[in-house]
């Protein structure tokens, strides 16, 4: 599968999300979408990232953007994660990994000499027309939310 890049049509998806709702890219047409993939609820980096996006949610709203975090965690885990940290972003559950794979976020990882498959922390900015505007791969959490917000405002 070729890697998605700016100018590509974003793969459509519908996922169950926290709070018993569903989130669908098609239904968000006309808005910018910040779609970020992260490894696991309630781990240090993922928590910092989710809190960062949540703290800036008013700015994203004002810029006309919806923020969606996606992992393989269940909706029940997402609900606990959201409540524990008062998160304001939508948390999509992709237990099958279909959407994660469609966006190229399921990658070979290496830790302590062990190779395994896992979710790469990456973010996609999708324009109101469903076209990818910007891609951040191998995201470092520090400063990332600000960089994404700047790109949303510039789009």
List the helices and strands and how they pair.
Elements: E1 14-16, E2 22-24, E3 32-37, H1 44-55, H2 57-62, E4 65-71, H3 75-85, E5 90-93, H4 98-102, E6 106-111, E7 114-119, E8 122-126, E9 132-136, H5 144-154
Parallel strand pairs: 3-4, 4-5
Antiparallel strand pairs: 1-2, 3-8, 6-7, 8-9
Characterization of this structure:
With 155 residues, this protein is of the alpha/beta class. Helix content is 29%, strand content 29%. The chain is built from 5 helices and 9 strands. It has helices at residues 44-55, 57-62, 75-85, 98-102, 144-154; strands at residues 14-16, 22-24, 32-37, 65-71, 90-93, 106-111, 114-119, 122-126, 132-136. α3 (75-85) links the parallel β4 and β5. The longest helix has 12 residues, at 44-55. It is globular and about 40 Å long. It starts with 13 loop residues before the first strand and ends with a helix.
Task: Give a quick rundown of the structure.
This protein is α/β, with parallel strands linked by helices and 155 residues long. It is 29% helix and 29% strand.
